[in-house]
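Q: I'm writing up a methods section and want to include an example of the input and output format. Could you take the sequence below and give the corresponding predicted structure tokens, formatted cleanly so I can copy it straight into the document?
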Amino acid sequence: MIIFPVMLVSVVFVFGASIGSFLNVVVYRLPAGLSLLRPPSHCPHCLHPLAMRDNVPVFGWLWLRGKCRYCRTAIAPRYPIVEAVTGILFVAVLRNVAGPSLLNLDPVLLLGHWILISWLLALALIDADTMTLPNPLTQSGLVLGLLYQGAVGWSATGQVIGLITHLMGGIIGAVLGIWLLDAIFIIGSMVLGQAALGGGDAKLAALMGAWLGWKYLLLAGFLACAFGAVVGTTAMALGWLKRRQPMPFGPFLALGTGVALFWGESILSIYLSLFFPAPNGL
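A: Here is the clean output for your methods example:
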């Protein structure tokens, strides 16, 4: 029936948008060293607590016409954008995991991918704002990635050996992520004559490796470098970025991870068919 998919997608979007609302809190408060729970949501200008109706994801901002109900100070449109994007990404993950019919649902993969997307969004936005990748997020994301690998292994095989095999794959991916970004840091610093990456980038790469495994980590890293090179070159050509001006790399790592998560298998299949075609007759 058509009603079930529509209802499921609607519920998932609302859930994702609600997570996006909390991500806005994380992005604002964590770098400032503030509690994520106290005080409750409030206007950053007049500090008046927000009513529940004002906190409705996306629609709360629209109802208020982008202004605080109490002091009429403008509220940045990034807040509803993050909420909407998170909701859309949660729906996209649902379709990617469960298929077009939304019937082949694997709860471990679904929950895991939702968690990874949430961590990536928070880290990307914080890095874009502050040029930092907070340890509490990168470290907790790494641990969750390893737990996810163990859960996937157990869910797929129902045996301890499956759990251990997937867990080891995550550990190898995490270690490779650190080595990969350290290598990029060393080579880039030699070429540029200045620090090419921040210390948090290697930790984010370890998180990526724990979640993706070594194969998709390499793809995500390559895509991140490609995206960063294109955006950086374009920004310099347009005069938006000076030659030696630092640029956050975390958003590109997050973007590369997202692409690998959704389309990694297809990209690798195309790559292998182009550069390593099967011999004729096989």
